[in-house]
Amino acid sequence: MTQPQHDPTISALPLPARDDVPEGVRRLWDKSQEVFGFVPNVFVAQAYNGEQFQAWWAYFNLLVNKEGHLTNAERELLAVVVSGLNRCTYCAVSHGAALRHYSGDPVTADLVAVNWRQAQLPPREAALAAYAEQLTLRPAEVTALDLEPLRAVGLDDHQILEAIQVIGMFNMTNRVSTALAMVPNVEYHAQGRGA
């Protein structure tokens, strides 16, 4: 096993060497480099425990990156609302870039990251953001009745469950990213902002 490197600008814990991660992690790093031109810091920092990272990534990828019941923009909206509320710099910036990409609206994406109420969201998106805020900040107060505003804007049960799962995933991921003091890759800051 090679000596792990430590880069406090990426993570508070050591970073694994390429030879010390499972083959699936190395393939993900290579694919990221090919598609994005960089390897997201989260893929390196969390890979220090390679098997756990792969399990997290499989579920995260299924919820956020695959075809689902919500649109990509709606899932990224939830990610940014939750990450902004949790003050998770890594996720607010990286998923802010994804929201800009899917929505085509950099102004709204930036507003959502700070205060979604100032973004003048359409009713469906506002209901999703309000529920994300409630489940993130006041989970002990949530009841089944809190799903009614989501139904009122046309969300079906599959979409509601997916929203809950995405909100839960980002609350967990935010805490891991924050605890590791992860910083977003510089490339995220310019993504989705036009020429």
Structural description of this entry:
- This protein has helices at 23-36, 41-45, 50-64, 72-85, 89-103, 106-115, 123-137, 148-152, 157-179.
- The protein is mainly α and 195 residues long.
- The chain has a domain at 72-178: AhpD-like (Up-down Bundle), CATH 1.20.1290.
- The longest helix is centred in the last third of the chain and has 23 residues, at 157-179.
- The radius of gyration is 17 Å and the shape is globular.
Reading off the top of the CATH hierarchy, the class of the domain at 72-178 is best stated as: Mainly Alpha
By CATH, the superfamily of the domain at 72-178 comes out as AhpD-like
Q: What can be said about the biggest beta sheet?
A: none
Mean pLDDT: 94
CATH-defined topology of the domain at 72-178: AhpD-like
pLDDT under 50 segments (min length 5)?
none
- In the CATH hierarchy, the architecture of the domain at 72-178 is Up-down Bundle
Strand content: under 5%
User: Please, how many helices?
Assistant: 9
Quaternary arrangement of the chains shown? single chain
Beta strands, count: 0
- Class based on secondary structure composition and strand pairing: mainly alpha
Termini Cα gap: 44 Å
Radius of gyration, whole Å: 17 Å
N to C succession of SSEs: HHHHHHHHH
Helix content: 55-70%
Shape: globular
GO molecular function: peroxiredoxin activity
Protein name: Alkyl hydroperoxide reductase AhpD
InterPro entries: AhpD-like, AhpD_core, CMD-like, Uncharacterised_peroxidase-rel
Domain Carboxymuconolactone decarboxylase-like: 52-133
